[in-house]
Design a protein that fits this description.
Rossmann fold, 124 residues, single chain, 5-stranded parallel beta sheet, alpha/beta
Length: 124
């Protein structure tokens, strides 16, 4: 089944980088959101989304809050979530993993790192 990604980041540039990386590794279906609340609305209105890539630091609703909201909803609790963020300290990573992100990438990253993390999540 084709993967449809929800790319969540308040930075247009970062969304472009993630989307271009997705395209370069063969994923052409995606939806973009500017923050967590926007992402939740898109998740509830587009049942085809089956993978979330989210930043942590965003206005309105952070990626961590988004992750918790996704995990607490029966319809979305099993969605793969990849956190892509500048927050690289151990405490932040532990906090994200406790919120049940599927994996974690610290910015800046290479397309290969993003591909490897996506592949790893999809293999499980």
């Amino acid at each position: 089944m084709e993967k449809k990604f929800l790319v969540v980041d308040d930075s247009v540039t970062m969304r472009r980088i993630v989307v271009n990386t997705l395209k370069s590794i063969g994923y052409n279906q995606y939806v973009e959101a500017e923050h967590g609340q926007d992402a939740l609305q898109k998740l509830t209105s587009d049942s085809g989304i089956n993978f979330v890539i989210t930043d942590w630091n965003m206005p309105v609703m952070s990626g961590l809050e988004l992750t918790k909201a996704i995990r607490s909803d029966e319809r979305t609790k099993e969605l793969p979530i990849l956190m892509v963020t500048t927050r690289g300290v151990k405490e932040d990573i532990v906090q994200a993993l406790q919120a049940r992100v599927s994996n974690y990438v610290v910015k800046p990253f290479t397309p290969q790192v993003l591909k490897d993390k996506i592949d790893l999540i999809l293999a499980n």
